[in-house]
Amino acid sequence: MAERRRDRRSGADRTNESELSGDGSRRLQPRMGDRRDSPRIPLALLVRYPEVGGSFEERGGDVGLGGVYFEERFEPQGAGVELRFKLPTLQEEVRCLGEILRVSDEGEGVFGVHARFEELPSETERALARFIDDNELSRS
Fold first, then answer.
1. Residues near 91 by beta carbon (within 8 Å), at least 6 away in sequence
2. What residues form DSSP beta bridges with 112?
3. What's the CATH class of domain 4-139?
4. Which of 10, 62, 81, 111 is most buried (CB neighbours < 10 A)?
């Protein structure tokens, strides 16, 4: 089960997380607040782990300018993830690689995967920014 407690200084929730160390192993880290630079918008993702192979599996998650968040029922092994998703302003499905930055233990056997995009084409970045802006405006 995830260990959650309030940080006395910042008031932020702290959750146990793991980060990839230099040798490829994961070590549990406390999470301090939110480090995102842009808002995240809910989006269906197709996910596959290169080290494991197999087929893409659909995950509910969210997407921001720099990366994605989604939940898994197992702690991912390895440092990378293959991602696929559809943006309304692009005809082609977005296919990209993500670097797993951290994995948070969300409790009850659920792990939150935080991944950063690797090398998105500029057209895809612009489409993603438009998608986020349009969804943020519609929320206001």
1. none
2. 71, 104
3. mainly beta
4. 81
